[in-house]
Amino acid sequence: MSFSLKKDKHGVIVVGVDGQLIVGNRQELKQKVLDALEGGGRKFVIDFTKTGYIDSSGLGVLVSLSKKIREQGGDLRLCGLNEDLQTLFELTKLDTLFAIARTSEEALAAF
Amino acid sequence: MPLRLDVRRRATGGGFVTELSLDVPSDLEYVGPAVELIAEELPGGPLSARRIRFNLRTALAEALANAIAYGNRHDPARLVQVRVEVTHEAVHLHVTDEGDGFNPADVPDPTRPELLEREDGRGLFVLRGLVDQVAFNEKGNSVCLTLRAG
After folding, report:
1. B3 contact A CB<8A
2. What was the pLDDT predicted at A97?
């Protein structure tokens, strides 16, 4: 499991989550995104195309990051959720809190 | 401490039961490796690959994290016991900590609008959405998660 950060030509930071996002690695993701926020990044996409599962701690970190990014006038979007992850977001009603796109291209185009 | 999975198979009146047992130290770093170890050793049969990949892995990660953080309070002297029973009809995941237990009825619904932006408090709710049955013992320090065949 690992996280990758890339900045596109419009300055949007795309974070790839390879593996699972759970209690054991959520702090690593949080720190990477907060460092990018501190470095001036304001628009973020987290891409879950390569993610198998997310536990409630992982969901909690996304909620926390979304709040911190919004407080700085930024925006966080999610994409690449498989059918099971989409259901998890609907179950927890977090689909109402996040802008969720099908692909990273769609998420980037929506900024 | 290396994780050591014990696998046993025994005959019952109606077929075979496979039992997997694992002791997990009270450190959240072990959650991911413990989940992978069990999911990969789980005998094929009652659950589809998709349910093992998502429902079983996520539910076990939730239950382990709760047991380590809230049950054993990260105490390195305490262990979390995981026992998995696999029958033809279902998989039963038993997760037991050495803590004082809790009352699941005291946990509020995290989808209430005023709680939606909280970082924590979704574990039990997510568990209930992932498996067919969630049953605690009276003390509240042991949970049995049942995934029926399918």
Report:
1. no
2. 95
**Which residue ranges make up each domain of chain B?**
27-148
How many domains does one find in chain A? 1
A71 touches chain B (CB under 8 A): no
- B132: tokens are 């067919």
Say yes or no for a CB contact (<8 Å) between B54 and A61. Answer: no
Determine how many CB atoms are found less than 10 A away from the CB of residue A82.
16
Angle at the Cα of A37 (from B28 to B30), degrees rounded to 5?
10
Contact across the interface for B126 and A23, Cβ inside 8 Å: no
B27-148 architecture in CATH? 2-Layer Sandwich (3.30)
Instruction: Render pLDDT for B43-70 as a digit per residue (tens, 0 to 9).
Output: 877 999 999 999 999 999 999 999 999 9
| pLDDT value of position B45 | 79
For residue A111, give Cα distances in angstroms to A10, A32, A63: 10, 21, 19
Domain containing A89 equals 2-109
Q: Is B47 on the interface with A (CB under 8 A)?
A: no
Structure tokens at B149: 């065949």
Pick among B58, B95, B115, B127 to test the A interface (most A CBs inside 10 A): B58
**The pLDDT of residue B16:** 87
Q: A1 pLDDT exceeds 90?
A: no
ipTM: 0.90
